[in-house]
Every structure is written in C-alpha cells, then in structure tokens.
Amino acid sequence: MGKANSRDVVQQGDGTWSVTKPGGGRASATADTQDKAIRRGTEILRNDGGGELRIHGTDGQVRDQRTVSPGNDPYPPKG
Fold it and tell me: Residue 56: which of 5, 19, 4, 13 has the closest Cα?
C-alpha cells in the first residue's frame, strides 16, 4: 500500500505560512495568514486525490488535523 497523501501548514521565520509536503524540499504554497494557507492546502489535497492536512500552531505543534476528500468524490462526507 502507498504512503498517505498529506500536507502541513507551518509558520515560517518571517511570519508567513507555508503548505509543505513531508520530506519535500520546498513549500507547495505560501500565504500571509494561516487561514489562507489552510484554504490553499485543502485545495492542493483535494486536487491531488485527498489526504490529511496537519495544521501547526505558532509553537510548531500540531493543533488540528483534517481529512480532505478528493475533489471528484461522488459521495463526499456530510457535515
């Protein structure tokens, strides 16, 4: 079975937020706010077949984790 698809939303030293893929060398996207980075990370995962989005706080610790369904899912979860 393949590795799970995931992304992390983390704050950079300059105060911006980035969407990174574990083991990746550079950010998939950057944003000036955490909310914008979360939205972009969700969009990236949805377009890439779904997966887990881990949201880190300003202290670097994971504060939330969300499952993102694929964009073409005919039966997306309700709620």
Answer: 19
Q: Which amino acid is at 47?
A: N
With CA atoms as reference, report the closest residue to 53 among 17, 24, 21: 21
Do 69 and 57 contact (CB within 8 A), yes or no? no
Helix/strand/coil percent split, the chain, to 5: 20, 35, 50
> Rounded to two decimals, what is the model's pTM?
0.84
Cα separation, 15 vs 32, whole angstroms: 8
CA distance 6 to 31: 18
What's the one-letter identity of residue 8? D
Distance separating alpha carbons of residues 54 and 61, to the nearest angstrom? 10
Residues 9-47 pLDDT 10s: 999 999 999 999 998 889 999 999 999 999 999 999 999
